[in-house]
Design goal:
410 residues, alpha+beta, 2 domains, 11 helices, 17 strands, disordered N terminus, binds zinc ion, metalloexopeptidase activity, Peptide hydrolase, signal, Peptidase_M28, metal ion binding
Length: 410
Amino acid sequence: MKPFVFLFLFPFTGGILAATLRAHYEPGNLQQILSGPFNEIVLNGQTFDASPAARTGFSLDLREKRLIQMEGKAPVWMTELEKIEAKANGVRFFDITDNASLDGYTRTQGTPTYPTPSAHEQVTSVIKTLTTDGPRELLERFSSYRTRYYRSETGKESQKWLLSRIEQITAEAATPELRALITIDEFAHPWGQNTVIARINGSSTDGRIVILGAHLDSTNLWPFSPAPGADDDGSGTVTILESYRALLVADFKPLRPVEFHWYSAEEGGLLGSQAVATSYAAREVEVYAMSQFDMTAWVREGVQEEIGVITDYVNPMLTEINKNLIDAYLDIPYVETKCGYACSDHASWAKVGYPSIFTIESSFEHANLANIHTSKDRIDISKEFSFDHMLEFSKLAVAFAIELAGWEKS
Ligand SMILES: [Zn+2]
């Protein structure tokens, strides 16, 4: 984190850059910045349309104060505009405004023990049925929204569309008997775009659940600009949806309940996942294992195709199981890598004491960092965007569900 957050504004007059104002953020001059004759904003070297017209269809108030938790610091209040600038500068944080106090929620769950992979026949029978056709068709549509920003109209529309496709896939793939075990719900958030949760109930009475997660929202550095979010995190969204579809087709009846979570507002500071995790902790739900899929599509040209296993801010024992699953069921090896503080939604589960892990498309340095959070995060930007690579992650999600939840076989 830089000691000060700067915003560079270029008043645009008659097509000519007339002047350059370097505005230091302080509560006192924010009003001046926002009401001034500034039509453009430069964030991390990119220029964006910041005119009021470009901000229609959004319910984001740039002046609103939010409570932000960065690594190793006391929480600080900053405006939405300052949040945008901090994120553009690579700062990672939780927006804890709605979950400021976790007193009484933070869990000491003890150390769960995990089995070594043993359901080889069941897992391989399901992963054989995974396809790239479904994810491709879903992602073409899902990444065609102008943005899936959590405070935008199209963000809300895209979430409702995803919900309808999950319901449709469930209706097509599940037998009536299996359908009776499934619930599909929206976890409502005050900003309008909701988290979606599909749950397959289990027959076990040990009370512990298994969660597979991805985030359904997207953003540009300047949130009012186009954000197709094909890789971040449209890829993870359709990756776990394809695993869900294949498990239903296989008539998967788990021992422990298995939940698929599509979080809203990851890009706003892990807002959706914090709300869900805090709610589960408050209700004393026992989460046995949570696995996050955020960016699963990119294979950097000239770099060996690998699965990135995140090793920081994760549960080490569950990470070992994840590696075992990759060795046992995937066609490509893993590479250990790090992602930093508050990197994706698994961190919200860790914060309230649940065991969670994160798997990503490659080592962090070889990920699709040049395109995410830009208008170029598209399926067709490069042949490095690979549906075959995503399929490996669907295999991992299937293996995780079956091995950790167990399969009640008739
Ligand atoms: Zn993401």
